[in-house]
Structure formats: C-alpha cells, structure tokens
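It would be a great kindness if you could assist me with a short task in structural biology. The matter concerns a single protein, recorded as an amino acid sequence and a row of backbone structure tokens. The record follows directly beneath this note:
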Amino acid sequence: MEEEEIVGFLTISMTRITGYQKNSTKESMIVTFCMTVSSLWCNSGIINLLTEYKVVKNTEAFQNAMLPGLIAISIAFFIIGGVGTFQNQGPLSLMAFALSLANFHLTGFFENRKLGASATACNFMIVSAISLYLVAIRFFPLPAQKNAPLVKKSITFKRLNKNRQVNNPLIVTGIIANIISSGVYFGRLVGITNILFVGHVPWLWTSGLYQLIVFFTSFWAQDVLYASFFSFTAILNFSEGYCLLIGPQPSNESILPFPFMIVFAFIFLVLACMMFLRNVFDGIYTLLFAICCAMVSYNVSGITHNAVHTVIFAASILNTCEKLYISNTDVKISYGQWVTEKIFFRFRFIKLRQRNGNHFAHLSCFKNHKADITGHAFNTLAAFCIITENHAGIILLIVTGCMVHISGLLSVSNGKTLESFAFIFHGIMWVVWALIRYKAFGSDIRNFNMAMPVICFLMVNSLVTISVLVLNKAWFFISLTLQILLIVFLLNTLNILSVKYIIAFSILFGVVCFYCFLTALFNAIVEKPQLPWGEPFIKRNTLQHTSPKEYPQPANKVTSIMKIAEIINEGGLCVIPTETTNVIAASCYFPDSVKQISQLNLKNMDNEISLCISDLVQMQAVKYLFNGMIWYLIEALSPNPIGLILPKQGCWLDCLGLQNDLSYLGTCHTVTLYVSDRQVTNQVIDMVGPLAIRFLGKECQELCGQSCARLLTQVDGILLDAPFKEDSGITVVDCTQIDKGLIDVKIVGSVSKIQVMDIFNAITAGQANGMDTENSVYM
C-alpha cells in the first residue's frame, strides 16, 4: 500500500499549485480539501504498511486502527461539503460528500463484509469522474460565448466582512488535525475501538506533522498566536503517539514526565489567556488543551483523559464549521468581544497591539520576527525534560531540541543574528545532551569522553553569554543559568556532583525561559503595558556601534535595508528613495506613525500622504472591489512606476487593514496609490508591507551632510541610494471618473500620456466588444 502514502504526500505538494497563495475563499476551501484528502491517504497507507509487516497483526486489530480515524475524517469531509454547498462550490462539495460517504460505508464494511463495498466503490468513482472533469476543463476550457452582452461596470465597493481570515487558509487544516487526533480517544470512549495501541499512532503523528506545516504557514502570515498554538499541539500529538507506541505500563503510571506535562499545561494556559484577549472562543478552545495536558500527566489512557479529548473533538468540529463558513461570509459574530471590551474598560491601561502585515501574506521576505516565542517555550519544556530519567524524557528532549533549532532558523530571516544563533546552539545542545543521557541510561558509566561535548558547549555558551551583555538582562540570565547548568552537568559526568544539582539548576533555567516566553508573547499581543526585558549591561554606543539614528545607511548593503525595515516595523519613520525623489515612509499598520508623518513640517514637502506598494500581488485581496477597467489599466502599465488617484469611497482600504489610517491618507475623497519599480524601495516594502509615504522637496533628491543632519532630527533612519535618473519618474493617472470612460494624466513620468491613453482606449474597446482584456493589453 505504498501508493496510498505516496499519493498522500503528493497531495500536500499540490496544495501549493491549487492556490495556497491566493486570497479568495474558493482557494482556501481547495487547500483545506486537498490537505484533508492527503491526510486520509497518508494514514491509510501507513496503517496498511503496518499490517503488511505484521505490526498490526490481524483483521480485528486493523479494524480497531482504522475505524476512529475514518469516522473523524468523514466528519471533516462532511463539514467541507456542507460549507462548499452554501458557498456555491459544486464540484468541491460533491467530492467532499462522496469521500465522506465512502468512508462511512467503509466503516460499515468493517462490521459486515456484505455491506458497503459497492457504495464505497461508487463514491470513489464519483470523485474520480469529477476530478477528470476538472482536469479536462482546466486544459480544454469551454469556448467563450460570442457577442456576449456588455455588462456595464462602475466603481462599486462591496461591504467588508471583518470576520474574513483568508491570509492563513491552513488554520482549518490544523483544526481538522485536532479532530482526527482527538477522534482516536473519542472512539475509545464510545466503544468504536476496543483498545488504544500502536495502530493508532499514525493518526496522531501525521496530525502532528500537518500541524507543523500550519505552524510554518502561520508565521508566514504573521499569526503569532496560531503559530504558537499549532506548534504546541503538534508536540502534544507526538507525545501521545509515543505513549501508544510504548504501550501501557504495568504500574499504570504515566509514561510522559510529570513535570514536563504540568509545565506544558501552564504554557497552554498562558497562550489561552492571550487568545482570550483576541477571541474568547479561541481562548476557551486553547484552555481545553491545558486541561488535557494536566490529565495526561496523571493517566495516559484513563477515562478522564478520553473524556477531555471527546470535548476537544466536539469543540474542533464547531471551530472548523466556524472557520470555514462564518469567517468567509457576511454573517457577523462578536467572538465574545463584549467580554474583552468590559475588561479593557475596567483596565484602561491595557491596549492591544494591531496585527502588523496580517493582510499581506505574499511578501517575498519570510517574516518571523516573533519566532523567539516558540524558542523560549520549547527551551522551558526541554529544561523540565531532563528532570526525570526515563526513555520518554530523552525522546521529548530530542523533539523539543529540534523545535528550538527550528525557531532559531526562523529568527535568522528577521536579522536577529545573536538570538537566532543562541536558539540554534540551544537546539543542538539539547539533542546532544539527550544522546549522552541515552548512552549513559541505566548505567554508571562516567568518563572523560562523555564530558568532551559538554566542555565544547561550555566554551560556545561563554561566547554567547558575553555577547548578550549588549542585548538585555533577560537573555543574559538565560545564558548565565545555562552556563551554570552545563558546569553542573560536567561535574556530574565526572562523578563529582550528584544529579540533584542538575535538577535544581534545570528548574531555575526553565523558570527564566518561561518568563522570557511570557514576556515575548505578552509584548507581541499587548502594545501597552510591556513586560520588561531589562536594559543591557553594556550599551552599544560604548562599543562604538553606529545606529541608524546617527548615520545614514547605504542601500547597497543588505544589512542596511534590514535595519531600515526593522525600524519601520517597530513604528519608526525613515527616509527611503523612490523613482523621483526621497520620501518619508512609515508602516501603514502604525497609525501613530502615519499621524506623525502628517504633522511634519519641512520645506517644500508634499502635503498629501500616499499609499505605496511594490507588487500587484499585494492588492489581490481587494481585486474584486475594483472596477475591472482600473485593474486592467494597472496590469497593463506595470511594472513601470505608476500612481493612481483612486476614490476613497467603499471599504477597499479597510479590507487591506488600513481603516485606522483613513483620516491621514490622501484627501477627503481620494487617495493616491503608487506602485514602485525601484529595487531598493520594493525590498523595504516586501519586508514591512504597504507604506504611507510623503514626498520630500527637490532639494532632498541628493542628501548631503547638512540635509541629513536636519532630517535625522525628525526621523529615525535614512537609506541612501544611487543618484536619481533624469528620465525616471512616476506617471500619475486620475481614475476617479473611469466609470464614465474618462481618465486624466496628472503627472507624466517614464510612461508618456500617449501610451497611457492608447492602453486605456484598447481596454475600453476590448470590453465594448465583449473581449477578455485581462491578458490582451501590455506595454
């Protein structure tokens, strides 16, 4: 049955082709459907392989292994089919319903060999027929109807649905993985399966694997809470799968280390509190996993543990329905905001942080500036893994070490060199530590060869401890306590100190890491007040480090661009170059920064604040809100530098997450949207999202020492690039009257007025003849 497993993994790859980077509801549903189909084939193939190699020994064991997962995944397909029906996605809903019925009939076939075989085959034939039909119309599209009546288009704007969360479509996949994993324990509670054994491990471990995929994509979408949540649930599924792999213990005690699961419960509890501030329902849903961890610590397969998973099973079904349907329609739901509003009214000093860049999941820079949250969390878990000496603690130490290592790799892309190096070092250290513990497990072997890796780690951590003196006090205490812990472990390896000292300093290190996790998560969600990291012991200025505030940064260095992007990401103001002149830029997701730009008073400075993007892909989320002629005009003029004066009416700015900047952008009725073609400008925008810009005067085209000094008194950084070309310029087109067939070229740049009018006339003529102008007109 290797074919089923291969098809399952291929289906994961196909989700990228089927539109993971699209921003419409349809593609999100397709991604969810493909990932669920992939889970079905992966699990079926693995269980069949286990049966072939006699791990699952007989027909009854095979039935017990398959039934809980099949029922859970059938419910998931049924939900997808129901939501697809309500959203008028006929082929998708039919395939989902057919797969759901096929799996339900397959469960009946296990009970009675004369029942369900024909129905299962018919449903699979329906899925195959629909799939062939979709392939056929993809490669052989139906001929377009000629002389189609022209539909008059105008600038009309649809009402924004604030519940829509299309930037991270794999969230539903992660919740469906929870349905499958908790469905195993649900099946044991209601009697679907007689025993929990190794045959159920594939359902748990593949669910954990899929949630790791959602963990990566959530960081891509800058959804910190869900990224942390699914990384934790993935480790929980791996842990529970390991328990089933080992089997019940004779003493009926928990296989997993008791301190590990208790600390895991506290981590879920902290995450639930942060979820509660955003969404009351998600906070309650996360709280169930905290209860589950507490129950697992006492009993691996008892009735209480199964009952908690049954509640999670039901809650996951409801959560899947909500995420697939309510979040993609115009149905309003409060998510319990009235509770949080009362809390914020009572505690007025609490202010939530706005989600930066949440509506732009297509930025070329893989932004993971909050990956240190998971790094600190898994460091905490690793510290409590080494308290108990058993095989489960060793395995969990390896897993958490790998997760710390991954968090370090994710932090690299944000330019956090020191923090990322520390996390990568910690991850490698935990894995090697686990291997040393495994070699010495159950014996009193202590020699110098086993101490050599610890000595190497001591030397590296000494360098890290000295380096973090310029970072903050929290990181210094992490490195210092780890240094003490390594010294104690070295002395224990040489039979000088007992293991009690390792336990004591492991707890101390875990407490420090837990505080860092709490601080990083709290500061990522709450804008004020902020939990303190502590001032660095050594200021960077004493080491003669140059900061962007002191000296302009040359644009020919990648580190300079990353410094400017980091300043803008933190709400600062920076001077960056464009095609014609320099501009003062701020992130659109910091209204206070945009307001600060509007209050600047410099000589010959443009009074209007405009919106600047780097690629049309960033506007895909609001494409359906625009007149088609505007969109065709933008596509035809791209990638040349252009500016479009667009009406402010409607909610297309709200849909981009810029509702708090409306009073500052543009004029009362219009806003100018610039599509940049300068490489340096686009690199900055790709790192921080859309920018609010205000053009400086012509005298600031070439920044000299005096002008730089004057600007640095009002901005936080300056990015210097090569001199501006004389033939370069931005063509500005007024599109406010395009529904009447009129446009006006306000400023002529690198694209002449004749070229703009020729393109517009070609688009108008094409639509008048009923032609598809989307790919017919280009520069």
In short: The longest strand covers residues 582-587.
